[in-house]
Amino acid sequence: MNKIENILKIKEYDKFKCIADKCNFTCCTGWDINVDTKTYNKWRENKDLKYLLDNVRFIKGHGKNKFLIKKETNGVCPFLSNEGLCNIVTDHGDEYLSLTCRSFPRIENDFEDVKELTLSCSCPEVVNIISHMEEKIYIESNNSLSYIEDLGCLKIRESLVNILQKEDIRIENKLILSYDMLFNMLDNDDLTYENLIEFLDNYKSKNYIKEELNKYKDYENKDTIEYLKEVNSLFIDIIENYRNVPSFKEALKDIYKFTEEINIEKFVKNWKEFKDLFKEYDNLIENCIVSKVLSSCVSDDLEEMIISFEMIILEYLLIRHAVFLRYYINIKKEISIQDVKDYIVIFSRIIGNNSEAVIEFLLDIYESEILEFDYICSLILI
Fold first, then answer.
1. CB 122 within 8 A of CB 345
2. Number of CB atoms found within 10 A of residue 178's CB
3. Structural domain boundaries, residue 303
4. What is the count of structural domains for the chain?
5. What's the pLDDT score for residue 345?
6. Across-strand partners of 9?
7. Is 38 a member of any domain?
8. 96 and 156: one domain?
């Protein structure tokens, strides 16, 4: 007898509809496309499909193996034709597509007898749907299901979402508070489920949160110029390999050129003015962040959970910096919501969908895939 599966969807999941050729961001460029094991084996076992494996690379890490499509030098999938069609579909049929290509931007996570369905902010239509939400984003609930109560990783995720959706706290502080919570758990070598629940309950207390937020005030007094330079350098390093991706080129070309000529000392005043204007988009940014947490912060390995959240923070830092650069070179000193949405999509792909490459970058530059809390704080609170 088959197990009955309960399906829960993120808010507005059923509103999504691909806009196909009207979309400015093709799904086939700018990110690492995963090939699931079932599809990989299907290609390997069929003599007419074996040639496809020449364009697949193998990644080993964190206890599980991954197969990824090798991107061309400009970040384009090698199976994308000059006409913008998929050669796999054209030559063999869509039944030979990887699960990622068949389902994007839909994301599935399975927990016991529950399947959660969420959407990726790497898709501009998803971000557009979220931008029209006036309320908080969430996964629909079913009070008869206890799967969240049974799984420690989902209790952690629940706490992250609760923190991120708190009112009257700056989004920067909510990100730091969440990251700090994860770090505190990592430092605890003997965290039983009961201890975990007791620890997470602290973050339901207004007084406890207030005390934690007071600890971060010193970071706000650090050298703004120094850390703006650091974010700018990080921005340059990370987008270097993606700035010529066709669907990213227009949005990144002029601001990338500007970063190379920039005099950070000159625009500190503009940075403060920008941050006040950027608050207008907090609801959109928050809902996108929560959407990412709901879909990606689901590992029962705490280090993997931290890395997933770290990727979300990096996305936020780069989105904010890109929008600032666009604002700075804008004569009218305005922020366009379309720019905000475009950079959410771009950095969701560059960071979120290329996490293995980003981790390699972090290991190369910082010699660790988990960045120091003090460093992250200083970058967020400039």
1. yes
2. 24
3. 148-382
4. 2
5. 97
6. 117
7. yes
8. no
Does residue 140 lie in a domain region?
no
Q: Are 345 and 23 in contact (CB under 8 A)?
A: no
3 state SS of 349: helix
Backbone angles phi, psi at 117, to 5 degrees: -115, 120
Q: Are residues 308 and 222 in the same domain?
A: yes
Residues in the chain: 382
First to last CA, the chain: 57
Residue 381, both tokens: 């609170």
Give domain status of residue 184, yes or no.
yes
Query: Is pLDDT of 232 > 50?
Result: yes
Q: Specify whether 225 is located in the same domain as 352.
A: yes
Residue 265: φ, ψ to 5°: -60, -30
CB of 113 closer than 8 Å to CB of 147: yes
Beta-carbon neighbour count of residue 86 at 10 Å?
Answer: 18
Please check whether residues 217 and 311 belong to one and the same domain: yes
273 pLDDT more than 50: yes
pTM (predicted TM-score):
0.89
Count Cα atoms within 13 angstroms, Cβ side, for 380: 27
Residue 23: partners with Cβ closer than 8 Å, 6 or more residues away: 124, 125
Q: Is residue 45 part of a domain?
A: yes
220 vs 333: CA distance, rounded Å: 24
- Are residues 226 and 309 located together in one domain of the fold? yes
Categorize the per-residue pLDDT at 1 as very low, low, confident or very high, splitting at 50, 70 and 90.
Answer: very low
